[in-house]
Give the backbone structure.
Amino acid sequence: MREVKALRAVVSGLTLLALLPLTAGPSATDYTVVAADGISVREATAAIRAAGGTVLSSNEAVGVYRVTSADARFATKAAGSAKLIGASERRAIGRVAVHPAARAVPAADVPPGPENLDPLDTKLWGLRMIRADLARKVQRGDPGVTVGVLDTGLDAGHPDLAPHFSRALSRNFAKDMPDVDGPCEVAGCLDPVGTDDGGHGTHVAGTIGAAADGHGISGVAPGVTLVELKGGQDSGFFFLGPVVDALTYAGDAGIDVVNMSFFVDPWRYLCPANPADSRKQQAEQRAIIAGLNRALKYAHQRGVTLISSLGNAHEDLGRPRVDTSSPNYGAEPYDRKVDNKTCVHMPQEGPHVVNTTALGPSGRKADYSNYGVEQAEIAAPGGDQGDGYGVAGEILSSYPKKVLEAEGLIGTDGEITEAGKGAVLKDCSSGACAYYMYAQGTSMAAPHATGVAALIASRGVKAVERELLRTASDRPCPKPRLQKYPDRPAEFAARCEGDAEFNGFYGHGIIDAYRAVGGV
């Protein structure tokens, strides 16, 4: 835990060049440019200008620049400069992935969650699996511990999130983009903090730290402070620049733990020299890798614990399949063989990131969850309808009312519609009605781990990552080691490698909140 101090006017080395226009005409394109190692701001700016670009803002801490250019060959020219690694168009490089909350699988009796807590906690089987109900009797989470939700936003008006939301620390780094997000809700397209037009960030935040106040649900660490770090678009896409800015801000602002439940687009795997890609595409991927790696290191060096979801492609990340989905935004995808030695899945394979696999209610690896001894480090409840419990086998958490209305899951009268029945729950016990939705994914597993990391930080432990791994409960591979999923195609079958102390399904084990706060 670190003391939260007043923020400086300029943080993270992020400099906004206010005198420059934010747009440069209809033919201009925005880029995120990454400078080569050791290149000064002056040198990088000169190289960008020589390539035909205009710098709009710079994150000097990690050598990343927001640039606009009307030159169609700008990215190619930038890639050819010895001062620059490359340029990525301001299009999505990350996307959250939530499996649909309601496949055609009926709900069944699910292993119960904790009793005698908040009303809907009996449906939170994940809290019981990681012994968060017992941990709460020892440590509920210190309000001085700050948890950054790097996501689509956070609905601070939700009754379960409002009590511990820090508006002063929260920031929005991602402007709405009409081409992917729809019409902007506010002038300038920068949503105010405390809003979430996507829903994903609010769901993540509830699992981490929903208040234990006798209403709705409670989170793993219900006493910690929640901070919105909006780095993703409303539509669920992410961009290199906003994500880098969010991470460097987290380091400078003294954020203790950051949750990253997203994965990288438009390339499922970032490859610096894949022969299937053009030189321009290779340079773009090198720039994305460098920019993210620098930002992750920057945050880590300033004490931020970084937790990530491992991904939902039911893939052994040490044995990647042929990539048939990249680029999955802005151009038609094509087949790419993936060299595991040089290609990376980001931010999961970035430095200092703790990766989380997802489990169903029975404790088995969720059918969709990525896995593998190379990248799996811990396991946590992420939900799995196919684990025998239907929708109830997913993860229930907070959700914005306006998003549910937009999706037709509740009506304008606030009542749950036919489409929302089973997937959405409502609680009005606090006097203000709040809404909750079931979802599954490694995106739901990571916030369980983030909550436990916050509890560890609340004890004053400095080496949070090491303690998180040390206190995880060992779980051996299943017998037989080849896990099959009868309701899924054959390609979902997954082989577990390793032993009880470390393996590709569970990593160092299932996170254990009670052990993490000193229990046995």
The chain has two domains: 14-90, 119-322+358-465+485-516. Confidence is low (pLDDT under 50) at residues 1-26, 92-105.
